[in-house]
Design a protein that fits this description.
Layout: E1 15-18, E2 21-22, H1 27-31, E3 36-38, H2 52-58, E4 64-69, E5 92-97, H3 99-112, E6 117-123, H4 130-137, H5 141-151, E7 156-164, E8 169-173, E9 178-185, E10 188-193, H6 198-201, E11 233-239, E12 244-247, E13 252-257, E14 264-271, H7 286-304, H8 310-318
Parallel strand pairs: 1-11, 2-3
Antiparallel strand pairs: 3-12, 4-5, 4-6, 6-7, 7-14, 8-13, 9-12, 9-14, 10-11, 10-13
Amino acid sequence: MSCGRSKKLAPPPFILLPLQSLRKTSVKATNSQEPVVLTDTNLVYPALKWDLEYLQENIGGGDFSVYRASTHKFLYYDEKKMTNFKNFKPKSSREEMKFSEFVEQLQEIQQKGSGERLYLQQTLNDTVGRKIVVDFLGFNWNWINRQQAKRGWGQLTSNLLLIGMEGNVTPAHYDEQQNFFAQIKGYKRCILFPPDQFECLYPYPVHHPCDRQSQVDFDNPDYEKFPNFQNVVGYETVVGPGDVLYIPMYWWHHIESLLNGGTTITVNFWYKGAPTPKRIEYPLKAHQKVAIMRNIEKMLGEALGNPQEVGPLLNMMIKGRYD
């Protein structure tokens, strides 16, 4: 990408390699299981006119999920798992509000120049207005349906609308679904890590509210607690309006809305992964090992009746025997 790099972005404390950008006609781009930026899919072409004013007029009167934080970092957390960790205190809070309220509060924060930040994250549903439906139906469904069929993916599960303030950061995490990340307004820096860097990124336990998120603070890494983070290698790209980033399931991604770029707008296309093949090939790939580890943690939590006992049991199994 030729634009969008902000001079104010701090370089991360690890090696960064460029992520290739391929045209949609490339064989690799349509069949690879690695992340790639696609530049001419026209996937969300009708939405490129979306800005806050257009959305406020046309998106409808439904409720939207908006996260509020006192810092630029929006660490995802699962509210259902908060009972497992009584001392967990999220650093952002979720509120339901009308789109007009969101815009009003966003403008108020920008005028005041306060440190408070908002991040709208809402699944597009049947409450949206007619013009948004028309735009949505005009997406390049032929192209994306072909990608789904070629890769043998399951069904489309949701389209998530993301509207963030400049400088907002979604810290490193991985997802268990395939993702086409379509940028509509503004620019985002995306840093990706393959599944085989699992041990370098130290995800929270499966039963923790921040499951699938890295425990490492990229701005101030604790190398004593997380020594393997010194070996991590990331792949970097910047996406702008019209670009589509394919993020394979189990690939870690750290996303930053670039400074001086104004409000960013993105739509995610989430798909279930391909069914497990009947014939398993060995050795197992890194993402398959991550899935196994997750299943082991879940089964142990259920068997022990207390998620807090999973870690000590695993330590007891390994300490002095496998290390």
